[in-house]
Amino acid sequence: MLVIGLTGGIGSGKSEVSRLFSELGVPIVDVDVISHQLTAKGQSTLQAIANQFGTIVLNKDGSLNRERLREIVFNNTEARYALEAIMHPAIYEEAMIELNRNKAIPYQILVVPLLFESTRYQKLINHSLVIDCDSATQIDRASKRDGSSKSQIEKIIAAQIPRETRNQLADDIIPNNGSLDDLKEKVIQLNDKYRNTCAVTQSTS
Question: At the top level of CATH, which class does the domain 1-27+107-205 belong to?
Fold first, then answer.
């Protein structure tokens, strides 16, 4: 079974590409989605976060105040490490469960925003796919999606692996500065490529 590691900078269009692959019948395992599931109201991971940072990171209804938590950890290395110690093992364990659940299919996609920064996840993939766009497009998309300021988004971009380095490490790149129709066509072409790769591998094994 082929596991494609999908990554890209903030606002590059990872979620949209994942959706297009999903529409073609490809299973998607997204660590951001897993993170949100693990920190939903009533989850033990959310309780661990509240124990670490206090009820200040909770909304009145007991759900996670993601903006407040982001403010706490973004400029505080010790706090970020503490959060990562809670979240990373739990997310990885759930990602492994989901990947193993999909073993019967030709290939699946593992979405990891910081794929090249994490040797743990790199060991799980056979092939990497980067969704790429220029920084101006990243800022525009992320600000419209999250309501974040330009300076906040620029800090996030600066904290991620440089765009040039990410592209150099990629096995495949989808440029995403154009229309949705263009993006869809590129996804269809790669889906055909990956399925053909799986078919050839199976026929020679």
Answer: alpha beta
SS (H, E, C) 55-111: HHHECCCCCECHHHHHHHHHCCHHHHHHHHHHHHHHHHHHHHHHHHHCCCCCEEEEE
Q: Which residues pair with 30 in a beta bridge?
A: 111
Pairwise CA distance, residues 198 & 192, whole Å: 10
Model pLDDT, residue 205: 53
Q: Please tell me the distance from the alpha carbon of residue 144 to that of residue 137, in angstroms, as a whole number.
A: 11
Dihedral angle sign, alpha carbons of residues 93, 20, 187, 176: negative
Provide CATH 3.40.50.300 ranges for the chain. Answer: 1-27+107-205
Q: What is the DSSP string of 169-196?
A: H-SEEEE-SS-HHHHHHHHHHHHHHHHH
Q: What is the pTM of this model?
A: 0.90
Q: What is the pLDDT of residues 43-91, one digit of tens each?
A: 999 999 999 999 999 999 999 999 899 889 887 899 999 999 999 999 9
